[in-house]
Amino acid sequence: MIRSDGSLLKTYNEERQDVAQKLIDYDKEWSAMMSRSPEEMEGPHEIVDFFVNTANFPGGFDTRYEQSSLTGGTEHQQLAEGFPVGMRFKSAQVSRVCDTTTVHLGHHFRANGRWRLYAFADESGQEVAALADWLEHSADSPITAYTAEGQDIDSVFDAKVIYQQDCHDVDINKVPRLFLPKVGQAQIMDWEKVYTAIGHQDIFTERGIDRAGALVVVRQDMYVAQVLPLAARAELAEFFAQNMALPKVPEFS
After folding, report:
1. Which of its termini does the chain have fewer beta carbons within 10 Å around, N or C?
2. Nearest-angstrom CA–CA distance, 160 and 162
3. Are the CB atoms for 211 and 164 separated by under 8 Å?
4. Cβ distance 239 to 217 under 8 Å?
């Protein structure tokens, strides 16, 4: 769970207050423009130009949060240039391996309070497999540390993998179990966390993802929190240590 010691509230001044002020300024400028008479404008194109040139801002796509306890640094940004740290996660099409359906990766994002871990696999798949094993089993893993006993393995961190190969070249039975978790009361396997690039719309090319692989950490509000190498175990653990709380252990009388 998110830390409850006030550290989350402190990030308001660090990132959201500045954005809120920019939104207020935008609204004032837009309202002033809409209240002007036609004679006061340069022409009918003025309102259209303003709206088109600024449309991304009110939609949240121009907002960029600075480094804080919820947003990491940009030391490894070159590994996924199309997912700028601090900006909204920009979706792209991928192929879902279980049924070869083309879907938008970001459209499977659910507003349920979970962090997202998008693991873009290396060419051989060995590095992403090693990462998955560490995330699932290591005592230092954020998934192990912050998921309460008895909860589904993806209840706090929703981990997905995107392979570089065509979907027909990925044997889903050999995919690490972390990306095929058994969830819910009936412990049914979730098949919808394994994806591949599409030949003519390769997400690795479209989003500038290094062919050596990358881990893209996305916040609950769909903003990119961190970009890391697949082998950056300590950096990943340190990032979550500053914003997550250990689950409470049940007390028995």
Report:
1. C
2. 7
3. yes
4. yes
Q: How many folded domains does the chain comprise?
A: 2
DSSP 157-207: EEEEEEESS-GGG--GGGS-GGGS-EETTTTEE--TTEEE-BTTB-HHHHT
Residue 248 above 70 pLDDT? Answer: no
User: Position 96: which residue type?
Assistant: R
- Tokens for 62? 């121009």
Per residue in 73-89, pLDDT (tens digit) is 999 999 999 999 999 99
Q: Is residue 69 part of a domain?
A: no
CATH number at residue 100: 3.40.30.20
The pLDDT value recorded for residue 192 is 95
User: For the chain, where are the alpha helices, taking DSSP H only?
Assistant: 7-11, 17-34, 45-54, 126-137, 142-146, 203-206, 233-241
CA 135 to chain centre: 17
pLDDT of residue 102: 96
